[in-house]
Amino acid sequence: MDAPVLEMKDLHAAYGRIPVLFGVDLVVPARSVVALLGPNGAGKTTTLRVACGQHVPTSGCLHVAGKHVNGAGADDLARAGVCTIPEGRGIFANLTVDENLTMMTYTGASIADVRERAFGRFPRLFERREQLAGTMSGGEQQMLALARALATEPALLLLDEISMGLAPLIVAELYEAVRNIAADGVAILLTEQYARTALEVADYAAVMTQGRVRQMGEPADIASELSGAYLGSHGEAKRSRGAKQ
Amino acid sequence: MPLLQAEEISVTFGGHRALVDVSVDAEEGRITGLIGPNGAGKTTCFNVLSGLQPPQGGRVIFDSQDISAVPAYKRGRLGMARTFQRIEVFGSLTVFENVLVAAEIRHRWSRGEEIDLDAECNDIIDLVGLRKVADQRVDSIPTGLSRLTELARALATKPRVILLDEPSSGLDDDESEAFGDLLLTLAKRGVAILLVEHDIDLVMQVCDRIHVLDFGTIIAVGTPVEIRKDKRVQKAYLGED
Amino acid sequence: MKDLLAFTVIGIVTGSVYAIAASGLVLTYTTSGIFNFAHGGIGMLMAFTYWEFRFHHHWPAPLALFVVVFVIAPALGALIERVLMRNLHGRSTGTSLVVTIGLMVMLMGIAQGIWPPAARPFPEFYSGHGVTIFGIFVTTHQIITIIVAGLAALIFWYLLNRTRTGVAMRAVVDDRNLAALNGVSPARVSMLSWALGSSLAALAGILIAPALNLEILNLTLLVVVAYAAAVVGKLKSLPLTFAGAMILGLLTSYLSLSWVHAEKIPGLPGALPTIMLFACLLLLPEERLRVGRITSERGPRVPSLGESLQGGILLVVGAIVVSLVLSDANLVRVGQGMALALVMLSLVVLMGYGGQISLAQMTFVGMGAFAMARFGLGGSPLGLLMAPLLAAPIGALVALPALRLQGLYLALATMAFGVAAENMLFPRAWLFGSSTRVVPRLHLFGVHFDGEKSFFVLLAIVFSLFGIGVLALRRGRFGRLVSAMRDSPAACTTLGVNLLTTRLAVFTLSAAMAGFAGAFYGGLRGSAQTNDFLMFQSLPLLLMAVIGGITTVSGALVGGLLLGLLQTQSSTGVLAGLVFLFTGAAAVSLGRNPHGVAFYISQKLEPLKDKVPWFRPEEPDEPLTEELPRIAAAAG
Ligand SMILES: Nc1ncnc2c1ncn2[C@@H]1O[C@H](COP(=O)(O)OP(=O)(O)OP(=O)(O)O)[C@@H](O)[C@H]1O
Ligand SMILES: Nc1ncnc2c1ncn2[C@@H]1O[C@H](COP(=O)(O)OP(=O)(O)O)[C@@H](O)[C@H]1O
Ligand SMILES: [Mg+2]
Ligand SMILES: [Mg+2]
Predict the structure, then answer these.
(1) What ipTM is given for this predicted complex?
(2) CATH topology for C305-635?
């Protein structure tokens, strides 16, 4: 058995004086997809920010591929094969789409490959390649952000709420893409507010509330317990509108 | 007569036709959906309605008046409020202050009698469900709550029509559930709501009527049931069931 | 006709130098997001360094040139990035602008220390050589200049737009964190862009030095001309910047044509960049409101009314004690600081609260001093009344064209205005002319504030009142509104705020405050003349205001006193260079502590306050929120 691609041990993190993570333990085994679920403000984004080197934890250990990497810079980790698609703004607004793609070559992929994969998955980007990325529609921007995950062949992929702002068709396509990436053996840690979507692709799921991972296990087990953990008391009323006519 | 109407508006960005003769409308007390694939032109349409983007053609009508030439800030004063897809909150203020600032701005231009703005804002905070974070700076609260802050702020101007651009993205299941209820409450109070949203379940549940936009043109208008059945909409947006 | 041709050649040469300087400015701006005021200063220092090697130590020209342009200048640029600029990302335009102003002051200090004023012949390259074109003798130096300018524009345009490194440089400005996630090391990229910008500055400095006689101030202020050209290119486009520089060069040169009769408008050549800048500002299309860029800085806590009253009383009592202890001569020095602090309050409102930048605050002060001199005869309060009334409308007029655009453009417009005022306005006979006007001190309710002691106490009282007023403004609706406007202009618009009039109101208020302070500043000094109110003097003012703490009233006090002290000390001539150095060094610390000295001190005092009962803040610190908020299922 390989060492897990990502391992966090008793990780604490804070913004200024306000602590946000209170001892996160999380493992992403090789070749597997882990879904990190939890309500708003649970600390999912912060966990990913720590994992990709953007946020320095106050204590605890961060291992990537068995190496202790506390203190490594985000750019070092990126070049080492950790690809992070941050929540919300994952593009350079003042660069054109083409220039954004150019930036994706810094982790080793050739520009031809990057273009081919990005435009192949999202033909819409090809139409808009001369446009300043910041003026594209919200969804188009999100596609561009995701193109990096497809184009750079990472070893570990961190995805923060990628479906945010995307049309249902695109979300479906996107998760198809995530599945493909996973099938290539890339380890993935993803967060998602819509638990259902994430659980469909995940090998394991972790539930996070109030800065701690409460539970980790098979998606099926987690799904059955989810409503109790954070979906709230009115779990039944919940999906009444989710049931398609 | 709908409160807010866009009549055949067109917008072109350097050769790219983002909107082609698009007409949408919103009625008082109703929730009107505006859905469509990414890049269809929904946000652009909102920008035209709220005056941030001048259209190349068409008219915007509010309360039976042509407001096409009215600048954005005056449209705000007429009773039009909106939220943004990429959140625009006042990050250095607390949630409460975000709402208060809006109320004060309204109070200044409406020249209304001196009323208790604080109490008014507190009501809105409770209504939207932001009580617990009311005194936190907005740049330190999670995305979903920032969105609600934006909505609360819009409400503080006592709008007659609200344009909501993907208000529920960033909310978790529980919260968007509550959010749907909130929209219905607002509609009951007589506000006209125009809703852009990709959470299709939410849209289908709360909207009275839905406009579907694809490649800058309206391809369908109807009730949620009609829209679900529409072949073109399924193909362009929903995906075949 | 031959005249015209000759002056065209001269114009192109001048334009070329401007172009090199302006390209460097645009290059650093697009690749670091910082508008480098010290660009001219770097060029100046490098020109001196070149002179040292070439003409003092008699190195061969190519060697000296290579060492300066390709070794020392890039190293200096990289050093500047490492020490000063790296801490600045994410800070406001204002803070970073001020740091570069500090850098400029420091570079001037260094140059003055190493090369005290003296005649330093700086011949052209290939002096005496040249060719005759259309019957006009063009020197080899001039030809070199033109070629270098063209090449630099081309090469750097290519670098920025066609190479991966160029894209990475712009990407780092756009979003540093994201650039790191892409595997780019932001630090290394920024260093490279500063190194390149610095090389260009050196090149411009060396090429223009022969024409400007290797003089510190002239070379440093080359940047004033360069930015006018850069604005033509909207601070972004290198080709347009190049065109702008050429137009400026040609116009300047044509003014010397005998049949243009430029001498009929005194000060016109000096004001040409200004005129061009304003023309550009009027012609540039309004910037569309940017959506989706959240900026918010964490500022110090705003004191409550009780606290600000306490502070005010404390200050007045302190002033009385000081006035009793100090000699009159020393009191004037401290008084100067107090008067400057009063001026800085206007900057607190404008920049600290409103997020706008003015580089012409001393010009408004001058207007106020003039109003007091002209209308305040015998200390009449009418002068005090006229001071803000004069400054405010002029302020509004200056700001109007720039407010449509944002941030930096306003700073540039005010700077241009400051330069124009010192060249064309103040020297008018009906204003200051070439003489000195007597500025009386206030005479109110039968009390003469003529004595040094009474005037000092009056200053303290006025400062306290204004401070309390400004803080009240900050706590109230106005304060919230300006914060909101800074955070998201687009959202404010949709809520019904007319951005233009609100911004204009803030700027006008600030100009009025500066004018009012000017009446006291003039009164303290007893006289006023054009040279007291040069644009260049607004820079240390702004710098010190920011160092003291631009977001706080106490910061204005600290900044004012510091500046007053430095000014009165350096006028004795002993410490001039040191003063420059100190100012620069203080600017360095800004990147680390953007809220200034006053805030820093108050933070250090915080633990003390708990022990002193009457100093305790009204509310305890916010409790740590361990339990993260959950939104309640609301609105049933
Ligand atoms: N300033 C602009 N310049 C050029 N093209 C633009 C500009 N603004 C929008 N567009 C283009 O217009 C189209 C419509 O954009 P819009 O933002 O309205 O889409 P949307 O329907 O809101 O999509 P989404 O659901 O993804 O947010 C997009 O293709 C976008 O790239
Ligand atoms: N920049 C910040 N400054 C201060 N607090 C923050 C900041 N970002 C997030 N937080 C706080 O950290 C907590 C966790 O946030 P986050 O990691 O974004 O949660 P999630 O992604 O699960 O919604 C929230 O309570 C939020 O208030
Ligand atoms: Mg998150
Ligand atoms: Mg949109």
Answers:
(1) 0.91
(2) ABC transporter involved in vitamin B12 uptake, BtuC (1.10.3470)
